[in-house]
Design goal:
- The chain is 34% helix and 14% strand.
- The protein has 471 residues and is of the alpha/beta class.
- The protein has a domain of 249 residues: TIM Barrel (Alpha-Beta Barrel), CATH 3.20.20.70.
- The strands form two sheets. The protein has a nine-stranded mixed sheet, with helices on one face. The chain has a four-stranded antiparallel sheet with strand order 1-2-3-13, with helices on both faces.
- Strand 1 and strand 2 form a beta hairpin.
- The longest helix has 26 residues.
- The protein is globular, with a radius of gyration of 23 Å.
- The termini are far apart.
Length: 471
């Protein structure tokens, strides 16, 4: 295993005469230029010890909650034929899928409750997934009523990931009443979205998605989100897509998801790694300037501002159970058709998966390639599934995610230096204070209201009164 360096040096891209010095142990930062850059790192931090102690006082330790993520694939049918789909890659799978039997759904809830009752400090998030989960609306209704009636309901947040085409006011009202956070998949303006997310039988999907989104906007304005997959179809215009989505729908948050490979190792929207990183950085600049909440950026910013490791890893590499309609349980929705990565539900013993399905070793702490990287501070890691389909191994890193996170670190350091220099002027050594860190997000919100439901590590479960509860 490569050793983690005590210090890192990062040259600012737009100001190459400026060097950022990062101390690994506590992620404290200072900047040098000129002869000061020649001073050894340890001596430099020792010389400015008192100022660093005052300016970058340690934050109170985060009380990060332990969360079990439970995905319920309600059906493996879908009414869209997305060109890049990594879950249901073949048309016959989309058409001929099945709905999860109630016996499987009920057993999944039993396993969830067993975990919650055995671990009182644990919280859970149940995500209703597909296929298109609204094709199994009767099952979804029944599950929502079951979960809302449990004594543990306050410890169980709920999320629905949908293409939005089947939403209407009645469904939206039911989801709101049962505290389900709705995320609609939408990749941008109509011509961009429909180029890769057509109806299964052909034709534009946007009109139906737009009707569903309008329903959410009427019933739960500002309390639902959008998931936008980023690839060759929208990377070049990503700033414009973000602005359009924000102005048309005013979502609580937008997720920008770098595309996954399909099971044959290809992808219909694949693109150059550096170009992907550049597109994501431009999206960050737009979001901080215009106050657009982007899930991935907020997770990175929270670690940077508090000088803490970003632990917003893929739930599959932390604590996740995925239940398929066929009654198999695994870690990852994109591998639910591969029996090497799942077991029959009967083999889930003591509410845990067998040891051979433990993915917790596939995080930046364990990846040799990550140990000497300065971006390890803010990087949530790679995708074990993408590694599997491209290399045959679950461990490793992907260039497109590395390019983005390294670029993000430099971008944030440049913003931090600018805030510090604007106040103090140029100097051989600059030590930024907390208020300089706090300037880095610009207008982008970095937290959500207390009643927000969002995916793991972003926010607490909703505190809104449940039906029958007093406020």
């Amino acid at each position: 295993m490569t050793a983690v360096p005590d210090h890192h040096r990062v040259t600012l891209a737009r100001r190459p005469e400026i060097t950022a010095h990062l101390r690994t142990a506590d992620r404290r930062v200072l900047f040098t230029q000129g002869d000061a850059t020649l001073i050894p790192d340890a001596a430099l931090f020792d010389r400015h010890h008192d100022l660093l102690e005052h300016a970058q006082a340690a934050s109170a330790a985060s009380t990060g909650k332990r969360t079990l993520t439970l995905y319920m694939v309600l059906t493996d049918r879908c009414n869209l034929g997305c060109r890049y789909c990594d879950v249901l890659g073949r048309p016959d799978q989309r058409r001929a899928g099945v709905i999860m039997p109630w016996s499987i759904a009920e057993r999944a809830v039993e396993i969830l409750l067993s975990r919650l009752r055995a671990e009182p400090e644990l919280e859970a998030q149940v995500t209703f997934f597909g296929g298109e989960p609204l094709l199994a609306w009767g099952l979804l209704e029944r599950l929502c009523r079951l979960l809302e009636g449990l004594p543990e309901r306050r410890r169980i947040s709920r999320m629905l990931v949908t293409n939005g085409t089947l939403l209407d006011d009645a469904k939206s009202a039911f989801l709101l009443a049962h505290r389900v956070y709705v995320v609609v998949s939408l990749d941008g303006r109509p011509q961009v979205n429909d180029g890769v997310r057509a109806l299964l039988g052909g034709g534009a999907s946007f009109p139906a998605v737009d009707r569903g989104a309008a329903s959410l906007d009427r019933v739960m304005p500002g309390r639902w989100g959008i998931s936008c997959t980023v690839g060759s179809h929208n990377a070049a215009t990503l700033q414009d897509e973000l602005r359009w989505l924000q102005q048309r729908y005013h979502p609580l948050c937008i997720g920008l998801n770098i595309y996954h490979y399909q099971r044959d190792g290809g992808c219909g929207i694949a693109m150059d790694d550096d170009a992907m990183g550049a597109a994501m950085l431009e999206a960050f600049r737009t979001a901080r300037r215009e106050g657009i909440s982007i899930y991935q950026f907020i997770g990175i910013l929270k670690g940077f501002l508090r000088r803490e490791r970003n632990l917003d890893y893929c739930p599959a590499c932390v604590d996740k159970l995925l239940f398929s309609p066929a009654g198999r349980v695994g870690r990852c929705e994109t591998l639910m058709f591969d029996e090497r990565f799942s077991v029959p539900i009967e083999q889930v013993r003591d509410h845990h998966l067998p040891a051979h399905l433990d993915w917790t070793a596939h995080t930046p702490e364990h990846e040799p390639a990550c140990q000497a990287c300065p971006a390890r501070w803010i990087c949530p890691g790679s995708c074990a599934y993408d590694q599997w389909v491209t290399t045959g191994a679950l461990h490793g890193v992907q260039g497109r995610r590395c390019a983005f996170h390294r670029g993000m670190l430099v971008e944030m350091l440049e913003l931090l230096h600018q805030a510090c220099e604007d106040e103090h002027g140029p100097a051989p050594v600059l030590v930024p204070a907390q208020h300089h860190f706090d300037a880095v997000p610009g207008a982008m919100p970095t937290s959500f209201p207390a009643d927000t439901i969002w995916i793991v590590s972003m926010a607490s479960a909703s505190q809104a009164p449940a039906p029958g509860d007093s406020p």
